[in-house]
Automatic annotation (TrEMBL):
Impact N-terminal domain sequence ranges: 28-133
Protein species of origin: Algoriphagus namhaensis
Family: Belongs to the IMPACT family.
Record-given protein name: IMPACT family protein
PANTHER family found in the cross-reference section: IMPACT FAMILY MEMBER YIGZ (PTHR16301:SF20), IMPACT-RELATED (PTHR16301)
Length: 208
């Protein structure tokens, strides 16, 4: 797991995980397989859950939790037959403790013949989720904005200086005597980028 520097100025960003990761936690012969996925929406979440249910079709419980949205506004915790709040909530708590969003964690249990009790279940689901997240990479993603511009070819040098200065991404471009370009950038830079574009004589902002 990589450390991501905390920055209170990053209002246009959020923390998530970089890839799929897994873990295995055992307690009194019960096995808890943990999986962590980066996700963007509920359709991706459903697809991941369906995939795991097919892969682990003989498991007794598929418990999970997720948080999506730049401000962690959408979340859910599911116990899937375990005692109330003994599985989904501990998983959700781990996602929150890592400060993540756009993240799904699933813990699949194979019963080992010995009941663990509610406290044992809470610890097992929490630990499996924690281990899956610890084996991942925490990354910072930015909320992006786009602008479409139109300019004449002689202005290309000024436009490219702006692209380099603010580390903009050229999404698409049409380079003729009359050029068009779509630029992508961090949402927090929108005011500054638009102001600088407006200072380039003859350049037209088609949308913002």
């Amino acid at each position: 797991m990589s450390d991501v520097e905390e920055d209170s100025d990053h209002e246009d960003s959020f923390l998530t995980i970089g890839f799929e990761s897994s873990s295995l936690f055992k307690d009194r012969n019960s096995k808890f397989h943990g999986y962590a996925f980066p996700v963007q929406n509920e359709e991706e979440i459903k697809a991941r859950l369906d995939q795991l249910r097919k892969q682990f079709y003989d498991a007794r419980h598929h418990c999970y939790a997720y948080i999506i949205g730049r401000n962690q506004e959408y979340f859910r915790a599911v116990d899937d037959g375990e005692p109330n709040h003994s599985a989904g909530d501990p998983i959700l708590g781990q996602i929150r403790s890592f400060g993540l969003t756009n993240c799904l964690v699933v813990v699949i249990r194979y019963f080992g013949g010995t009941k663990l009790g509610v406290s044992g279940l809470i610890n097992a689901y929490k630990t499996a989720a924690q281990l899956a997240l610890e084996s991942n990479e925490i990354i910072r993603e930015y909320v992006m904005s786009q602008v479409k511009i139109k300019f004449e070819y002689p202005q290309m040098n000024d436009v490219m200086k702006l692209v380099k200065a603010y580390d903009l991404t050229i999404v698409s471009q049409e380079l003729h005597l009359d050029c068009r370009m779509v630029l992508s950038f961090r949402e927090g830079l929108e005011g500054l980028v638009l102001e600088t574009l407006e200072q380039i004589g003859g350049l037209e902002i088609l949308n913002s």
